[in-house]
C-alpha cells in the first residue's frame, strides 16, 4: 500500500517527517484560538471569528510571494528560519490577555498567517523535488495521508495539553482556562521550535530544481 523506499529520498523524508511534526504543532490552533478569544478573553463568537480572518488574509498574500522567497533563500534556510518564526509567533499568544490591544492580536494573527502559509507551501513543494515521475502518484498519496494525520493529531494534542494544564479546575473558571491556554500555546511553540531541527538535515541546494535557486 505504501512504498516506504521513498523515505530514502532526503527531501521527501524531511518534508513528510518534519512536516508531520510541524503540522501537528500548528494543528491545534484553529481550536485553541477561538477558546482563547471566547472563553479566555470573553469575546462574542462573531468577534472571535473576525479575529481569525487576518490569518487567512495573510496566508493568501504570502501565496503571491512565496515562490520568490524560496527562489531567493532556498528551502533549507526558509524552512529552518520560518519554523523558528512560527514557534515564536505561537508562543506570543501566551501573552494575550483581556487588556491586550486589539491591533496587537491582529498583528500576531497576520504574522501567524504569513509564516504558516510559507511553511505549508515549502513543505508541500519540496516533497516532490527529487521524486521520479513514476513515483509521483505514490508520493502524493503518502504526503496527503501524513498531512491529514498530522492535523488530526495536532487538534487532539492541543486539546489534551490544555486539559492537562487545566487539571480538575472547573471550565467555568475563566482565569484558570486562560492560564491553561497560555501554557498550551507555550508548549506548542516550544514543540514547533524543536521541529526546526529536522530541517537542518537539508542541504543548501536541496529543492533547487523546484525553487529555481542558483
TrEMBL record:
<feature type="transmembrane region" description="Helical">
    <location>
        <begin position="179"/>
        <end position="202"/>
    </location>
</feature>
<keyword id="KW-1003">Cell membrane</keyword>
<keyword id="KW-0812">Transmembrane</keyword>
<keyword id="KW-0813">Transport</keyword>
<keyword id="KW-1133">Transmembrane helix</keyword>
<dbReference type="InterPro" id="IPR011701">
    <property type="entry name" value="MFS"/>
</dbReference>
<feature type="transmembrane region" description="Helical">
    <location>
        <begin position="149"/>
        <end position="167"/>
    </location>
</feature>
<feature type="transmembrane region" description="Helical">
    <location>
        <begin position="78"/>
        <end position="96"/>
    </location>
</feature>
<dbReference type="Pfam" id="PF07690">
    <property type="entry name" value="MFS_1"/>
</dbReference>
<keyword id="KW-0472">Membrane</keyword>
<feature type="transmembrane region" description="Helical">
    <location>
        <begin position="12"/>
        <end position="33"/>
    </location>
</feature>
<feature type="transmembrane region" description="Helical">
    <location>
        <begin position="45"/>
        <end position="66"/>
    </location>
</feature>
<dbReference type="InterPro" id="IPR036259">
    <property type="entry name" value="MFS_trans_sf"/>
</dbReference>
<protein>
    <submittedName>
        <fullName>MFS transporter</fullName>
    </submittedName>
</protein>
